[in-house]
Amino acid sequence: MNETQVSVPLPVRLRFGHAAVQHLADSIGVDLLHIKGVAADASLRPDGDTGSDVDVLVRPDHVARLDAALRRNGWRLYSTFELGSPFGHAQTYLHDAWGYIDIHRLFPGIRVAPERAFDRLWSERLTTEIAGVACAVPTVPAQALLLILNAARSTGSSRRDMRYAWDGASSERRAEIEALVRALDAEVGFAATVGGLERFKGERDYRLWKVVSRGGSRSEEWWGRMRAAPTLSDAVRIAVRAPLVNVEHLAFQLGRRPSRREIAIEFVARPARAVGEAWRALFDRRSAR
Predict the structure, then answer these.
(1) DSSP bridge pairs for 69
(2) pLDDT tens-digit readout, 77-130
(3) What are the helix and strand counts (H, E) for the chain?
(4) How far are the Cα atoms of 70, 169, 220 from residue 172, in angstroms, in the given order?
(5) How many domains is the chain partitioned into structurally?
(6) pTM across the whole model
(7) Its domain of life (predicted)?
(8) CA distances from 252 to 74, 163, 261 (A)
């Protein structure tokens, strides 16, 4: 008897991915909110866009518990909090059946403490059914704000989300979103998307939002990350990590665990690329004059 492989459509797989992580969270007492993609309210994605992975925002105190459970149940680590993004906000896993999942311990652009931010969103949560499983989601204005903040550091479909989340919002909805922006201290990230970022030049995270929303070199990004760090010790840790190789990401690029030699080559290549980017950025600025 010949085996038959069936290709599962991405939107279906994503829904089952949401359901799978919710089932796992319920079994270990973890609080999480499903965000973006198929979890978003239909009014915020009228074109039916489902994204490409599962995103959840996890109560910060529960992150370690969920991480251990994911690893026990077939999810493999793809990228870490420390090396996965300029904001250190999410950790990515890959499952053979459910695909990619990003667990967020905070959401970029929200500057109140992650615990307080989660409590605010959790206290007003709604429930939606995904693949037959009850899943907690933020209120629709909160969902819209998260999509807007996400659009500042993204392209493609995330930028299209802006048309529905902000550009197409009613005056009442905009007022609700702006109230959340103030409550969650999200003015800088919000301005990076909707406009007015230059008003926040004095803020410590201004440079980081400028480079992620408008483009820039890796060295500019790392400088922005250090400037955005809340303490000097945090800035030092970021500076120390700058030349380190993301071994997990390199392994996925190679399709296997990299050798010590390959890690060493990448370690040398990173600063070389940074210098090249810096020179190109300087040349571009001079040419624009």
Answers:
(1) none
(2) 888 887 667 788 899 999 998 889 999 999 999 999 999 999 999 999 999 999
(3) 13, 7
(4) 40, 8, 38
(5) 1
(6) 0.80
(7) Bacteria
(8) 16, 34, 16
